[in-house]
């Protein structure tokens, strides 16, 4: 039973179904909301989606391939780029797709799996259900269209986000590792007609912080997350569209060639680094942001959520085959939590480096980004961002000896 049907929950249902394990997926939203976050799928994630049979739906929704990321400075111009095309992987690129369309693709791919995945949208969870001891969580109660329901499972998966009610009900701590002084505004505008954005993302670094330009919708538009101090959010929100556009062009001069200002509304994105003290308690397992919240600087959030789903599904399959699901669940905690710990630390380091502000950033930008001229360093960054340093369930050999002792 999976509570929360966004990327982490839907991915868990797909991973389980690919191994012949059935699930009930409970999602509060009745429709697919427009969220200004989580647009970038990394190469490792694409491989998992391919294994689960979801990739054709991603492509049908208009996923846009990105092969490299370039760094720029408003005065010094192009600093260099790193890319994916030389990596040893089946999908040597990122794929960019609006978050709401990624949701649609995940659900469209359920069409052929109705025997294994039971989707319940509009499910409002009210309270947890426990076993006879009153200690082991075994399900939830709630309502769908005003009608009460009760849902139980051999395993309960909390995919209900950073404010996870199930995590809190289980008494699992959620540590705030770092409080960042900046956030991102996330406007969308027409794509500048420049070759630098041809299947590429752009990052402007400088004294005012990081500005990213991410192609959307087949490259016809771009999302422009740019850094502002948390304390100044209300002042930025008070700007008119022309004033905001002028500030954006000053931060990222390439936008000057875009045919027009910001389109529609725009949103803010607060930055956090959080980690659950454990991923498993009894039958309850945490995946995605219920387990960890990571800064978006190198776009690792969805990658980690999909790896959680991949490993958890294999652990559950292993437990079913060996006759003891609950006994095996601790293996998920032992395998995923330390791996995610490393990913959180690396993302934090990159966030501090790329989001640095002040005159010293402009003064030292050429030396600080000289590594972009080193092919070895560029490849290391590409491999880390692609997720090739992470380990899938298949690579871990979880199902090699079902029910046996894992190293």
TrEMBL record:
Name under which the protein is recorded: FAD-binding domain-containing protein
Native source species: Amycolatopsis minnesotensis
**Span of domain FAD-binding:** 1-344
Sorted alphabetically, the keyword list is: Monooxygenase, Oxidoreductase
The answer to whether keyword Membrane applies is no
Tell me the InterPro entries matching this sequence.
Answer: FAD-bd, FAD-dep_Monooxygenase_BioMet, FAD/NAD-bd_sf
């Amino acid at each position: 039973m999976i509570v929360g049907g966004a990327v982490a929950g839907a991915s868990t249902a797909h991973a389980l179904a690919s191994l012949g394990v059935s699930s009930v997926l409970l999602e509060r939203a009745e429709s697919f909301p427009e969220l200004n976050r989580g647009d970038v799928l990394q190469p490792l994630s694409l491989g998992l989606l391919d294994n689960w049979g979801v990739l054709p739906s991603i492509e049908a929704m208009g996923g846009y391939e990105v092969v490299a990321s370039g760094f720029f400075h408003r005065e010094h111009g192009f600093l260099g780029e790193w890319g994916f095309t030389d990596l040893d992987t089946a999908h040597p690129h990122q794929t960019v797709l609006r978050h709401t369309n990624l949701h649609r693709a995940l659900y469209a791919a359920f069409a052929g799996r109705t025997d294994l995945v039971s989707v319940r949208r509009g499910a409002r969870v009210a309270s947890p259900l426990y076993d006879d001891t009153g200690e082991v969580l075994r399900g939830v109660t709630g309502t769908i269209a005003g009608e009460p329901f009760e849902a139980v499972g051999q395993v309960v998966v909390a995919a209900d986000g950073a404010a996870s009610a199930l995590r809190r009900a289980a008494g699992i701590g959620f540590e705030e590792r770092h409080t960042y002084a900046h956030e991102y505004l996330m406007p969308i505008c027409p794509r500048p007609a420049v070759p630098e954005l041809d299947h590429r993302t752009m990052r402007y670094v400088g004294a005012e912080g990081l500005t990213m330009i991410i192609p959307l919708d087949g490259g016809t538009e771009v999302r422009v997350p740019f850094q502002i101090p948390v304390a100044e959010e209300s002042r930025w929100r008070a700007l008119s569209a022309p004033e905001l556009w002028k500030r954006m062009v000053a931060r990222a001069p390439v936008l000057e060639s875009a045919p027009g200002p910001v389109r529609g509304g725009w949103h803010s994105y607060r930055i956090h680094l959080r980690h659950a003290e454990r991923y498993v308690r009894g039958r309850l397992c945490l995946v995605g942001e219920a387990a960890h919240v990571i800064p978006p600087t190198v776009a690792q959030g969805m990658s980690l959520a999909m790896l959680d789903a991949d490993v958890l599904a294999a652990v559950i399959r292993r437990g079913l085959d060996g006759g003891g699901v609950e006994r095996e669940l601790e293996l998920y905690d032992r395998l995923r939590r330390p791996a995610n710990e490393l990913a959180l630390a690396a993302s934090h380091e990159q966030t501090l480096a790329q989001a640095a502000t002040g005159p010293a950033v402009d003064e030292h930008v050429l030396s600080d980004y000289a590594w972009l001229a080193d092919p070895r360093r560029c490849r290391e960054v590409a491999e880390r961002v692609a997720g090739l340093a992470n380990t899938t369930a298949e690579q871990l050999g979880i199902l090699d000896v079902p029910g046996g002792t894992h190293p």
